[in-house]
């Protein structure tokens, strides 16, 4: 427990950062059908309007932040589908992250093992590209030597953590570190140069899913983009903001803005819905930072998802057909925050030979939620299993996603459904590269 003075400070901070936003909510309930946790838990405190009301009450000092607010906020997936459904434009995402920051303040001095491990990763791993690359190299060696098969056969990870064991099984094959893209490299356009773009390689994508990054660059150059990999780019800060570490998120945002503005590129491209959402809101994150507010606005205007650029400068040079049914699972942050929903579908519908079938509820969350599926495994799996029932009805041979967390989550769903032999999960870049003859 903090002192009464500290508790008052936390309450005042919550009031100052959220109260005006919470008063925008008219408690109409339009958000309820869009909320995956309300659908799965069936209680008001698991709904957007319920959480907003709790934040408002905590800001007024009517309930305790740590005891009454922390758990309902932590159980939110942060998918932000409620913002799309809201008729009065309540900025739920901003309320959520402001509340998480205050909750993190109340928990900072508690020596809880899980919190300590999480803070260690957020502060001392993700912000350091070299350390992340080292992790990626270890995973590559772990897979290449067959240690992963031994671990799965002996269930050694299962004994440590069931969620970690489940996710370990569906980590994609990691490419050799020698194939990893290098900062400072400029990849020339194939044919006419139509534009210059700077590519955001990310932390987890760069470390573990480097193949998708490499294929992304190949696709961009194939439609006439000159691609530069800015030096000194860093983690986007999404995980930090989602866990209440706003100051670190700001630090990372400033580093990225500086690196990308130096690139001289027309557009700043990402291939991960979650990262892209963080990049697209740098202007909000840095709105009170006088020295960086204008640069943040410029950065946001240039920030695009890879699907937008491929549609704008396409068509892609398809070389073969992809026979079979495909379906698409929206990345919540790509759809709800970046407002990108048509471009991925345009690209998938253009694939020769493929039959695109829209999945019922494609716009609802798969419950990956950054690290939500590690922190709240059972709840995540309940939502995922329901999602897989909808996916199975399409008879698709591939579920296409636009975010690494979604891709891994859907792979886990396929495994849990017992249809690994008939269905697979792919990033949209992978299937587009395949039909363009790019390996």
From TrEMBL:
Gene Ontology terms, MF aspect: 4 iron, 4 sulfur cluster binding; glycolate dehydrogenase activity; metal ion binding
Names of required cofactors: [4Fe-4S] cluster
PANTHER family in the record: GLYCOLATE OXIDASE IRON-SULFUR SUBUNIT (PTHR32479)
Name of the protein this chain belongs to: Glycolate oxidase iron-sulfur subunit
Keywords of this entry: 4Fe-4S, Electron transport, Iron, Iron-sulfur, Metal-binding, Repeat, Transport
EC number annotated for this UniProt entry: 1.1.99.14
PROSITE patterns: 4FE4S_FER_1, 4FE4S_FER_2
Enzyme class of the recorded protein, top EC level: oxidoreductase
Domain (4Fe-4S ferredoxin-type): residue spans on this chain: 15-45, 66-96
Function: Component of a complex that catalyzes the oxidation of glycolate to glyoxylate.
Note on how the cofactor is bound: Binds 2 [4Fe-4S] clusters.
Reactions catalysed: glycolate + A = glyoxylate + AH2; (R)-lactate + A = pyruvate + AH2
